[in-house]
Amino acid sequence: MAPGLADHATSVRRESLLIGKCLGAAAVASCQGAQLLIPAGLFGVPYHPIMLAMVVLQLAITALAMAGLGAVLAVSIRTTETFHAVTGFLSLPLLFLSGAMFPFTGLPSWLAAATTLHPVSYAVDAVRRTLTTALPGSPAFAGPTWAGWRPSALLETTVLAALGVFLLHVAARRFTRRSE
Prior knowledge:
- By secondary structure, the chain is mostly helical.
- The chain has six helices and no strands.
- It starts with 13 loop residues before the first helix and ends with a helix.
């Protein structure tokens, strides 16, 4: 037997297991989100293959970032009950501050600042902008701004991807250290 493997059940590195689990969760979430695009034509969204591919990519990046957040929480919290309580507690603010339910316009300044710092608001804005570019006469949605400047959907998606990679890295490092 190889040196150092006698006390391990497998030769696979622990962080590989965590990253694989997160990639699998992101793939499932992306497929589930993509299924919502199937009836989009009934609501006037044209089936442009490039636009739909961009939306699916944005969904996958968002799912990866959320899987990374979940992994960081999971490796940081010791008990299953506490993990479920914390994720349940975080779910509603993630949804309500994202801009998916309520528009950004007319928010008090403290709440506008919270939505600007909130990563899911960039995901919602990027997907919404990608979908509405193909719709003639679609309403303009307000999204998060940085000192009055609104980042492009590409920049929003890139920042979200960087956040997802960073969260996966943090979770993998914490997961590896936890075993030592």
